[in-house]
Vitamin B12 import ATP-binding protein BtuD
Amino acid sequence: MTNVVEFNNVTKSFKNFSLDDVSFSIKKGYVTGFIGANGAGKSTTIKLLMNLLRKDSGNITIFGLDQDKHNQAIKERIGFVYDENCFYDTLSIRELRKIIAPMYQKWNDNLFYKYLDQFSLPEKQPIKGFSKGMKMKMAILFAISHDPEFIIMDEPTSGLDPVFRREVLELLHEIMLDEQKTIFFSTHITTDLDRIADYITYIHKGKILFSKEREELLTEYGIVKGSNDLLDRDTEKEFVSIRKTNVGFEALTSCVKKTKDIFGDEVLIEKPSLEDIMYYTNKGDLTCTL
Ligand SMILES: Nc1ncnc2c1ncn2[C@@H]1O[C@H](COP(=O)(O)OP(=O)(O)OP(=O)(O)O)[C@@H](O)[C@H]1O
């Protein structure tokens, strides 16, 4: 399987935060969801991917090309949706098109007008009068009208109502019907990933904890429920983190198989949601080898 992106030992430090020796890859032809708590390093990683930030060390290849040597050629093949509005808001879509289209050799007006119509966006109205949902649709419109192979989005569904969110996800589905396309997007809304993501990359305090197939992840991890007297210093170490109540404990394991070997039928193991995995991982440190 080909990788569209390879991060190799990438490091970036700010005064109070570091992306620490980050290595992961993004598979061609799939949707990868990028999750992590507030401040975990998602936007920083995406900015490094877009070459908008200078890395301290390591290297990044995109389409097999070194990012620093082939910046322009790479950008031509990427569609980027940023989480903040970065367009001049006194301009209309028609005026923006005149500025943005010449930047891309492969700009496709047929595609542009197809999506403009599909998104029901007004062409001549200044964008400052647009709702948040309309602005997001417009950002997507400009990101995909040069028919990019790889689409990167920083929280495309944040702040959108459920109907708009569903529309954005439907659009991503439509794009993915072309098996050559790849999408990488960050989100806090893990249920969106249940609908669309094939792979999940999880960042926690500047470190990548895993980058795995979603289905595989949901089989390896489990929510374990049992009686508090099963817990002692040794058994507690088997869990990512534990929540104890008067009636028993609930914990996350990252190794369902090992948990079954240790506890047998004495515990109940349920399939976790991505939200469960994020919640418990933020509470504790990983104790099992991933
Ligand atoms: N230019 C910068 N200078 C100093 N610190 C920065 C800079 N950019 C980001 N940071 C810090 O790096 C950390 C990670 O920020 P980042 O925006 O990557 O997180 P995030 O996972 O995208 O968070 P969120 O989900 O809240 O958007 C934060 O503590 C942030 O304050």
